[in-house]
Amino acid sequence: MTVWVLGDQLTDRSGPVAGSDSALMIEATAFGRRLPYHPHKLTLVVAAMRSFRDRLRADGRTVHYYQCETFADGLAAHAAAHPDDHLRAMTPPTHGARDRMAAMADEAGLTIDFEPDPRFLCAPAAFDEWAGDRDEYRHEAFYRWQRDRTGILIDDGEPVGGEYNYDAQNRETPPADWSPPAVPTVDTGVHTDAAAEWAAEIGEDWADPATFQWPTTREGALDVLDAFVSDRLEEFGPYQDAMRSDSWAMAHSLLSPALNLGLLGPREVIDRVVAAEDAPLASVEGFVRQVLGWREFLRHVYRREMPALAAANQLDATLDLPPAYWTGETRLACLADVVDGVRERGYAHHIERLMVLSNIATLLGVRPQALNRWFHAAFVDAFHWVTTPNVIGMGTFGTDQLSTKPYVTSANYIDEMSDYCSGCAYDRSATLGADACPLNTLYWDFLDRHEDRLRANHRMGLVYSHLDDRDDREEIRTRADRLRSDALDGTI
Ligand code: FAD
């Protein structure tokens, strides 16, 4: 029996590899060409696979490692050498992947069976029991249930500190003289240079291939976790929603690539954070909420709601993605800075993803699928199961299955939570006029265009009363149309 290990299933601490001494790994070049992937994403996955292979071999296990064009080629080569082999695999979270793997194995003449995915704390059956037959999901209810059933941050049946959620304490902005905590220096592993060369050969050149800085081994990932707990956790909570042009990482953990590849497990990461002495509860709970709550919640909503979720577009958005998302060339200081960061390192933190990248695309009326494709290609931590619910659900309100209202905002929120607006070519306080911030025009236009759907939403009542007070709706529509075509022309 041989365990077929995919590039994001790199754990030997649990799952099928833990109980086997033989593994099959396939580097499939065609897979890396399916989208214009960020070279760091390709480097990360391939270097991490090679390191995992070395780790298993050093542990005395056999690893059949194939570098070929497609998975089918790799399986055919393996079947030719080991015709009677039986494969076992971890069930992949990507929709349809299990069936595709089974069909490919069958085509190669090999048998295969699947084990549960140990990289999440909530098993499918448990989530399904909690969710029943609902098709609308609210995170807060799931999160409380997860806390109660795991006992994480629960004391004598009650949430530690008396509340389940300290979100209200996660929205501060740092003072002007704040020095962001140092970004950890990462040991990127021995395979990074060769993997980067391979990525440069097959990949696109829209992003900087030279600045790779993610861990590709478990040891490197543990170092990033250590650095988070000792240097960054304290400020993670209060500044979770803040953005600063001089700090791409703020106090975020930078753990998503390692978690999504399996180099770290959610339980060990949560346990380390919960055990951190002296860390403020709002930081600890804020982190637990992301990993125990959001990450698991979205993975299961995706599992249950695919394939319709990926295609959802309830606002009938039709615009293509503006070129600024690839080039970073725009006069909007917030968008330019965040896209520059993505080009440089394949990363932006949560509030940049939600309130800058998704917000601007949603206000413009970009097709959720076009934005999802971009996120999937551009981010080092992007995998279909996590990008899709985040982009289609939270980011663009392509469906209301995950949230009751769209996360959209004018320049007001960006100005409050960041220092972008003070250095921007646009005027944050104007809605009309050549220099008015496009977000203001587009925000009112968004409410106007989607009035039929959104006005009745009780959480939108106040903003619609402000729209009712405006007597410039026609001018707003005209300017919004022009901004949309400017965005497509790359001149916004
Ligand atoms: P921290 O802020 O330190 O959070 C800690 C951990 O919590 C993260 O590492 C991650 O594992 C988990 N987490 C937090 N929020 C989410 C969430 N909404 N969904 C899933 N996990 C979460 N996350 C990805 O891992 N891959 C993606 O492709 C991805 N795409 C996103 C697209 C959009 C439009 C939005 C709004 C969010 C997306 N996220 C994605 C979620 C989140 O933004 C990232 O997990 C986070 O920014 C990663 O940085 P970090 O490790 O420093 O996170």
TrEMBL record:
Pfam family of the protein (one): DPRP
What organism does this protein naturally occur in? Halococcoides cellulosivorans
Q: Which Gene3D superfamilies match?
A: 1.25.40.80, Deoxyribodipyrimidine photolyase-related (1.10.10.1710), DNA Cyclobutane Dipyrimidine Photolyase, subunit A, domain 3 (1.10.579.10), HUPs (3.40.50.620)
Q: Which UniProt keywords apply?
A: Lyase
Q: Which InterPro entries match?
A: Crypto/Photolyase_FAD-like_sf, PhrB-like, Rossmann-like_a/b/a_fold, UV-DNA_repair_photolyase
One GO MF annotation is: lyase activity
Return the protein name.
Answer: Cryptochrome/photolyase family protein
